Amino acid sequence: MSNRVMIFDTTLRDGEQALAASLTVKEKLQIALALERLGVDVMEVGFPVSSPGDFKSVQTIAGSIKNSRVCALSRALEKDIDAAAQALSVAEQFRIHTFISTSTIHVESKLKRSFDQVLEMAVGAVKYARRFTDDVEFSCEDAGRTPIDNLCRMVEEAIKAGARTINIPDTVGYTVPSEFGGIIQNLFNRVPNIDQAIISVHCHDDLGLSVANSITAVQHGARQIECTVNGIGERAGNCSLEEIAMILSTRKDELGLHTGINAKEIYRTSNLVSQLCNMPVQSNKAIVGANAFTHSSGIHQDGMLKAQNTYEIMTPESIGLNRSNLNMTSRSGRHVIKHRMSELGYNDQDYDMDVLYDEFLILADKKGQIFDYDLEALAFMEAQAEDDDHVKLQQLVVHSDSTQGSATATVKVEIDGKTVTEAATGNGPVDAAYKAVARASGSDINITSYQLGAKGEGQNALGQVDITARYREQNFHGVGLATDVVEASVKALIHVMNLTWRADKVADCKHKKQLQSQQVLGGV
């Protein structure tokens, strides 16, 4: 048996479906490219049959990724498998992942079928998926609560039907490591054709045991772990990719297993997912939390000064977190910026040097000193920009009187090439600025969440504002970054306005196509 553990990332499928606001196609592609750099073996990027947007995302990513295998999810239904195959067809190689529930409670209460009927559906789905690709994965949903006799039977028949990967999910995070390890061991002991497939595990974190269960599973013979960056996902989340990668790397002597993950991309990928998904990483999160390499105790600090490995079992550099932080000024040339971006792990294709340098100079004039985290923040915001923005901020002027509890804001915005200036008063500077933007644009955005954070350290840190807005039964996530928090707030609002404008354009196009189809049918 191979000692290589395959990493199956489902950040863009299981992770994304738990977000307050769905990611755009562009944002999903950014994450997919980051996962490719990270070195995941397989990335599950969506559920194509669920919506036209998910179909387009899967298709776009499948046509862009070359070094990881792209996978799409489908229920054990032919229409689902057709959608997955069609979306993935642009890829040279791809995987179809089909699933059905196998636990008694799911079979009887959710599917309202007999186990034999479910078994027949599973076999049929695997055989149908094999028409499109040799790489078919089958999942026994809620395997952790499935009677072992039924589970063994299902796994054996799915392998006979042509599944090359069998996934054993702890769908509701119910099992404990000894129990889950026993399930995997039973499968290897009782399923006669188990050697014809890779056994995978997909563990949820409802009891905080997803990583422990996954490690126990590979100790008992599983060779694929399904996980997400930062452990995002349904309810309490999924098994954390970065924790799995660093456990197998740090404890290779004990476990004797390894992955193909490029660990130096972990920190950067974690930050990207956190920002795009609007899901902050808790400070004490293992591997990527802000405190993961912080030492506060005097005894610990003394030990660190004497020998780093007294209290650190891995280095920050091993996950791509650079200890050195070079400061730059407006006198720093392009070659310095390019060098720093390279040191931070960015390729020339990851950013537009002209745009980045112009933004760098503007920020340097405001702050004086620019640090690595500033550069990364600028690169992140540049990646979110679109050429066809409907609304652009040109100027913002705010006056606030804390004694009176009121503020006035004047905004100048460009809307479809036309400059509009409006003013408004509010309970505070952000409220006033938002009302002025609403007047100028004629649109009223329902903001359901507002978060203010900082990028960097000290009083010169950049302010980052994340908002979630509700528009036409959909949630949209906007982000703004500036040295001034009011400006950052307005930028986040305008980001959402541009997203909703594009959503309206897509809806209009779909409506026109429907009308054209009706006219054609009417003519016939």
TrEMBL record:
Its cofactor is Mn(2+). PROSITE patterns: AIPM_HOMOCIT_SYNTH_1, AIPM_HOMOCIT_SYNTH_2, PYR_CT. Mn(2+) binds at residues 14, 202, 204, 238. Residues 392-524 are annotated as: Regulatory domain. The keyword Cytoplasm applies. GO terms for molecular function: 2-isopropylmalate synthase activity. It is an enzyme of class 2 (transferase). It comes from the Bacteria. InterPro entries: 2-IPM_HCS-like, 2-isopropylmalate_synth_dimer, AIPM/Hcit_synth_CS, Aldolase_TIM, LeuA/HCS_post-cat, LeuA_allosteric_dom_sf, LeuA_bact_synth, PYR_CT. Residues 5-267 form the Pyruvate carboxyltransferase domain. The keyword Metal-binding applies. Its EC number is 2.3.3.13. It catalyses: 3-methyl-2-oxobutanoate + acetyl-CoA + H2O = (2S)-2-isopropylmalate + CoA + H(+). SUPFAM superfamilies: 2-isopropylmalate synthase LeuA, allosteric (dimerisation) domain, Aldolase. Homodimer. NCBIfam families: leuA_bact (TIGR00973), PRK00915.1-1 (NF002084), PRK00915.1-3 (NF002086). Catalyzes the condensation of the acetyl group of acetyl-CoA with 3-methyl-2-oxobutanoate (2-ketoisovalerate) to form 3-carboxy-3-hydroxy-4-methylpentanoate (2-isopropylmalate). HAMAP family: LeuA_type1. Belongs to the alpha-IPM synthase/homocitrate synthase family. LeuA type 1 subfamily. This is 2-isopropylmalate synthase.
